[in-house]
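TL;DR need structure tokens for one chain.
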Amino acid sequence: MADYPTVLIQVFGTEVIGKDGTVTDLAVSGKPRLRSYYTQVRNKIKVIHDLDQTEMDTLNAHYAADRLNAFLFTFDGDGTQYTVRYQSPPRSKPQVGVRWKVTVSLIVV
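>> reply
TL;DR here they are.
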């Protein structure tokens, strides 16, 4: 199993987002109703990078090689390692100079 490229620095805003499948709505009486659709919490990870062109090429190569495969991702916030897959292609915006702000969406499998 491959690893997510560790040379790509995770910047502020990178987060693990847990979803427990709970939906809240209101009954006719105004009381809240809770319904749970999952048996366990499912996590998504939003990774934000500030990359130069070489790092951008590294990310694009990893996506091309592993977009359909599971791989290991280490969250720099607490060092936890997750087995993940890409949820969608990396989204990038050019910044000043030759830098890119990139958002990567991963889903824990």
